Amino acid sequence: MAAITGVMIELSAVIVAVSDGAPKTLLVNVGGEHGLGLPCGPFDPAGHRTLEEGLRTWVDQQTGLPLGYVEQLYTFGDRFRDPQERSGGPRPVSVGYLALLGQTDGRPPGEGAWTDWYRSFPWEDWRTGAPPILDSVIAPRLKAWCESATSKAELQQRRERADLMFALGEAPWDNERVLERYELLYEAGMVAESARDGRLLKQDTHASIIGSPLIKDHRRILATAMGRLRAKIKYRPVIFELMPPAFTLLQLQRAVEALAGGPLHKQNFRRLVAHEGLVEPTGQISAQTGGRPAELFRFRRGVILERQAPGVRLPLRVRRGAR
Questions:
Q1: How far apart are the C-alpha atoms of 119 and 117, rounded to whole Å?
Q2: Which residues lie below 8 Å from residue 281, measured CB to CB, with a gap of 6+?
Q3: 180-204 pLDDT, tens per residue?
């Protein structure tokens, strides 16, 4: 891989689709490394005109998928979160991108496999209520981590962070803080990456395996993409990049719930969609709903010109519940 004064520039893609009401991301086995990761590859200063061109090249080679909507997420450069650097190689700087695809069926044409992103983040899925892993695993182990603080000030700081991130006390659940929650679990030694990166204390035998790990820093990049997309669907019509050309309102609601990680009130959602003018009827009926035939709609693109922030702003019905 190309190195510039000890720095390696890598391009990584979080490719998202919604299939059967589940948020899917494309994972590949990169370079024979142990475990799955995001499609990625080095930036070639001589061969790639732009960073995005390099990203599209690597995604095409590894998955065979032509990308449509793409936006840059963030640049990740923390030390020693890549095995090559820990073994004396160059320091990696990873430029992460978010790419959205319309609904896709079956295996992609290349090396990748579509995987539900909640496999890596089971604590983020509130569609049927608070995830059991919060009370059974995360809350008690975060409490123990807080109590292991070496001073009263550190104890207070840890408790406040745990409450704010995971709604363990009075704080509400904020579905956009995906990266901050993952980083807290990483710091507390509760994910496999903590042990892999040498972040555990000597007395700790292993990290709790909470969620499926990814290679390098890829779970961190995926967390960033999840938070970005959850925020963006509230003020931009990006949800329609993930929908087929024609869809039912129930399909649209299920797609929003899948990405946001929480349930929406059916009638309120439909009133909002109608009031905001986000969709228009196609004049066709779908009989493939498993019940009564349902009207098919499409995205009304004129809404982009009418308003600055045409998104799905309806709040989720998320309740932490009594503890």
A1: 5
A2: 295, 296, 297
A3: 999 999 999 999 888 887 766 544 5
Cα distance between residue 17 and residue 192, in whole Å: 26
Tens digits of residue pLDDT in 213-229:
998 889 999 999 999 99
For the chain, the domain total comes to 3
Range of the domain at 188: 123-196
For residues 145-181, one letter each, b for 16 or more C-beta atoms within 10 angstroms of the residue's C-beta and e for the rest, the string is bbeeeeeeeeeeebbebbebbbbbeeeebebbbbbeb
Q: Is residue 204 part of a domain?
A: no
Q: Decide which of 196, 224, 256 is a domain's last residue.
A: 196
24 shares a domain with 108: yes
User: 85 with 38, same domain?
Assistant: yes
CB-based contact 263:245 (threshold 8 Å): no
Q: What is the CATH number of the domain that holds 45?
A: 3.90.79.10
pLDDT per residue over 250-283, tens digit each? 999 999 999 999 999 999 899 888 888 889 999 9
